[in-house]
Amino acid sequence: ALVAGVCGQPIVHSMSPLLHNAWLAAAGIDGAYVPMGPPEDRFEVFVNGFRGGVIRGLNVTIPFKERALACADEASDLARLAGAANLLRFREDGTIFADNTDGPGLLGAIAAQAPAFDVSAAPVVILGAGGAARGAAAALLLAGAPKVGIVNRTVAKAQAIADALGDKVIAAGEAELPALLADAGLVINATSLGLGGGDGPPADLALTPPGCVVMDMVYKPLRTEFLQRAQAAGRPTVDGLEMLLLQAVPSFEAFFGQAPPAGVDVRAVALAHL
Ligand code: ATR
């Protein structure tokens, strides 16, 4: 059997086993996708134990994505720029290759739900400066965004991302947000605000140009307060669930050597679980 898995801490809430095992069953593949929760202080020992061994690869989630990149012998450009990996492949020669499929997931979600979006046409504004914000900025830069503004309560964290990603990325505080919104082509909530049904980040989305796409990386609930405000302002919206579902597609291909089978409604599988 082909075995892969996902590791994080905590791991019980991960939706990945549900998705991958639904695909495995539908494709008739002799395989399994297993959730794993290594102790936080022993992540490196856990990963290195799989070198050249029995499992094909691992997805990696919070809080291990940065440490996963550091464990790898080789990494994709995107993983390096994002400073994080959500996919590790264990190669037969004992080496580890790190990749990041959150970026393709983000771009795919926008393509699916806001097909008119042109990444090269206007600046991007990202709210928040954690790992999710850096990953989004890296993916959008590689996809051709002309400028990325990172706005955060703690400006020093936004500045650290700008320093790592180069001069197309600028750091800003909340006072500069209205000016950035006024010529944005895409606004992304990459803060944790809105999780569990609370208020999203305080950005006046009506200041954005008509047609500006608004995305939320928070997907619990699916229609966040932030997306509801975007919709009220008449802006096209993209939800975080689509990103979560689409990051799983290249992971499945890397683990099991084929695309996920058509005909599995993974969005419905996920929604039943939210
Ligand atoms: P992740 O790795 O998932 O991106 P994170 O590193 O915890 O998560 O980042 C959370 C983001 O949400 C940060 O940008 C954080 O702002 P600070 O860097 O100033 O802490 C932002 N955030 C969380 N709670 C917030 C709040 N009440 N107001 C404003 N920003 C908040």
N to C succession of SSEs = EHEHEHEHEEHEHEHEHEEHEHH
Bound molecules: 2'-monophosphoadenosine-5'-diphosphate
Structural category: alpha/beta
Major sheet description: 6 strands, mixed
Secondary-structure blueprint of this entry?
Elements: E1 2-7, H1 16-27, E2 31-36, H2 43-48, E3 57-60, H3 65-71, E4 74-75, H4 77-82, E5 87-90, E6 96-99, H5 102-113, E7 124-127, H6 131-142, E8 148-151, H7 155-165, E9 169-172, H8 177-182, E10 186-189, E11 213-216, H9 225-232, E12 237-238, H10 240-256, H11 266-273
Parallel strand pairs: 1-2, 1-3, 4-6, 7-8, 7-10, 8-9, 10-11, 11-12
Antiparallel strand pairs: 3-5, 5-6
Helix pairs in contact: 5-6, 5-10
This protein binds 2'-monophosphoadenosine-5'-diphosphate.
Subunit structure: Homodimer.
Binding site for NADP(+): 77, 128-132, 152-157, 217, 240
EC number: 1.1.1.25
Structure description:
There is one protein chain. By secondary structure, this protein is an alpha/beta fold. It has helices at 16-27, 43-48, 65-71, 77-82, 102-113, 131-142, 155-165, 177-182, 225-232, 240-256, 266-273, and strands spanning 2-7, 31-36, 57-60, 74-75, 87-90, 96-99, 124-127, 148-151, 169-172, 186-189, 213-216, 237-238. The chain folds into two domains: 2-100 and 247-273, Leucine Dehydrogenase, chain A, domain 1 (Rossmann fold); 117-235, Rossmann fold (3-Layer(aba) Sandwich). Helices cover 38% and strands 18% of the residues. Helix 7 (155-165) links the parallel strand 8 and strand 9 (169-172). The chain is globular and about 55 Å long. The protein starts with a strand and ends with a helix. 46% of the residues are buried. 2'-monophosphoadenosine-5'-diphosphate is lined by residues 128-133, 152-154, 157, 190-193.
